[in-house]
Amino acid sequence: MREKSRKTAIEAILSSIMKKYKPNELPCLTEQYETWLQQRPLDGVKIFDATPLFHNTLSKFIPLLAGGAELTVGIHDRFNHDPEIAALLKKIGIPVAYNDFYGSDEDIVLDCAAIHSQKSPAYGFVELTRSGEHVFARSEKPCISVDRSVIKYFEDSLGTADGLMRALENLNIPVAGKKIVLFGYGKVGSGIAHRLIRENASLTVVEDLRQIVPVGAARWIDFRQKELLEIAASKADIIITSTGVPGIICKNYNSKIFTESSALLINMGAEDEFGECIKATRALNQKYPLNFMLSEPTRLRYLDATFALHNESALILLDNPTPEPGLHKTSDKIESRLIWQTLEKSIIREEAAAFLNRHQQKNMEAFKNVQPAD
Fold it and tell me: What does the angle CA 64 – CA 109 – CA 29 come to, to the nearest 5 degrees?
């Protein structure tokens, strides 16, 4: 991309972003942009960015372009995207690749859910979600996992729960007093659980109780207790999946439990966690994550630090061009700096600080106020 075209593209995206967002909604990306504009750490590096494309995703591209990257944006049929944003990118000269799953023209692929794992970038991948980790664990290329960070909780735990509640409100579906069964208590599930309890839902969490310590005011069922699970599902008003495992329901349970239940079915995983035995029409939003029905599935305030970490992890690959294949954790030093920026400057600083406090204390609250399953 010629420098004049690059400058024009940056100005167009900045104008679009600043019309909608306040500076305290993207402090990490703003500082990254200002730093990279001077340092140009990605000068000439071919970056393929497959982050789900919505208006707030534009903010992620500003530092990449300012840093000198030759950027291509990937969209595909497996995730929703905003066609108006794709059209805007093409208009300002940024290539948009549709269903481009193969090839080796890129230096680095910033992927999401390992959708583009068949590509062969020169330096490797940076994966955004847990859903892609099992694929990249077997990869012949190195992959930095952003999901293996505390920062990802800001998006997955706080932001996804916020998106779910906004989507339910859009559909006029109340949760107060409703019986809700939630599969999964990881980054996404724990945030959803915390929010549903705050909203006075009657919550049952299904998890592998060998792997986690039950906490809080929910009822708990081990995922192997199928009789208890069937009873809970039959009485549920809403059933939500948030395990990070594609097809987990069909692989482990009788589909009739879910198809014959009167409960609303909601998938909150990056991929279809119900599986092929349950038709798309049976679940809200065709089994896509429910917050993806919104124009802004996760608000930028929750994505800011994650987007910045996804971008900056590319520098780890450039600085160490021959790491071992497979998964690698991102840099603690980079993550600590982004957390500090969030706590100092972000609109979610109080919410993030409260989460970090809960995160540190969770093991000390083992079995406190836990209601055993009937």
Answer: 30
Pairing of strands 142-145, 124-127: parallel
pLDDT of 235 above 90: yes
One-letter amino acid identity for 86?
Answer: A
User: Position 101: which residue type?
Assistant: F
Domain chopping of the chain, boundaries: 3-145+300-330, 153-293
Contact 150, 349 (CB under 8 A): no
**Amino acid at residue number 268:** M
Tell me the three-class secondary structure of 171-232, residue by residue: CCCCCCCCEEEEECCCHHHHHHHHHHHHCCCEEEEEECCCCCCCCCCCEEEECCCHHHHHHH
Rounded Cα distance, 143 and 51, in Å: 15
Could you report the per-residue pLDDT of 254-306, keeping only the tens digit for each? 899 899 889 999 999 888 999 999 999 999 999 999 998 998 989 999 999 99
CA 309, CA 152: separation in Å to the nearest integer? 9
Task: Report yes or no: 338 and 305 within 8 Å, Cβ to Cβ.
Answer: yes
As beta bridge partners, residue 283 has: 265
pLDDT digits (tens, 9 = 90+) for 94-103: 999 999 999 8
Task: Provide CATH code, domain 153-293.
Answer: 3.40.50.720
Q: Does domain 3-145+300-330 have CATH number 1.10.3720.10?
A: no
pTM: 0.86
| C-alpha to C-alpha distance for 245 and 180, rounded to whole angstroms | 20
